[in-house]
Amino acid sequence: MPNDKVAAIGDKDTVFAFRALGVDAFGVTDADAADTIKKVAGEYSVIFVTEDVAEKQAELIARYKSRPYPALIPIPTAFGSSGFGMAGIDRNVEKALGTNPGEGD
Amino acid sequence: MARLNVNPTRMEMRTLKARLKTAVRGHKLLKDKSDETVRRFMEFVRLNRKLRKETETEVTAALKSFLTASAANSPEIIAEAVSVPVRSVKLTSEISNIMSVRVPKITVEEGEEKEMYPYSFATVTSDLDVSVKKLGEVLVKLIRLAEVEKTCDMLADEIEKTRRRVNALEYVLIPDYEETIKYISMKLDENERANTIRLMKVKSMLEKG
Questions:
Q1: B residues 114-133 near A, CB within 8 Å?
Q2: What is the domain count for chain B?
Q3: Mean pLDDT of chain A
Q4: How far is residue B195's CA from residue B191's CA, in Å, rounded to a whole number?
Q5: Is the ipTM of this complex over 0.95?
């Protein structure tokens, strides 16, 4: 069961900003990203993953989609959003409706 | 569609008719469930888009300030400045039920408003203050985003599953049953006719002889 904590995973220089707010930040490189996600996923209920890491580890993150916890959520990096997070919403819509009616709202 | 491999007997037909009735009822129920789940899902998707749009710019701005701060100060000073937070984020993670899908329900327990900055202003640049302040403002929204986005993920999964079931019933199971029932009733009718003819034939042979 999750333990009501929040974690942030990403490039060391960006996620450390979350530390000041009491969020546990984990700086990762490409090499140890997968291991860190696996480790953190068992302990935290909300995990923010920067888009660059999330994009590379998409397969691993998809594995956690079918359970209520942990919630792995892509967040933009300091260099702006790559649109990966928004694309995730579109993917969901497409999956659910069979087509994507676009930004209908 | 493929006919089921059963003996053309009255008993089989009766069983199949009962099964067909169940299948049709199940199909209707699942279809209703799917429609309602889609409706709920669309609400969440709209909220999800809105929240994401709002948070993305804010998070980017906050992280950018942090990056500037890291550039201005040495990494050790920054790491030290943020390493002992004065605030902590405490969540209550529960599980709620939307259309029998177990989705997360996260509430943030607001700690008492203490000092926001866990460091001395003397050692670091003001960029760090900006970053921490902005992040602090957006954090609650981010957690709400996490909840909504996860809910969307799970509802999308569930809708896909339900749709498959509905389609399997509608396009495979129900037509199969219908065809088999038709086949059995034709076969039984045919037997009946064969029987009548046989009797007629026997009767005419008896009359002749």
A1: 117-119, 128, 131-132
A2: 1
A3: 79
A4: 6
A5: no
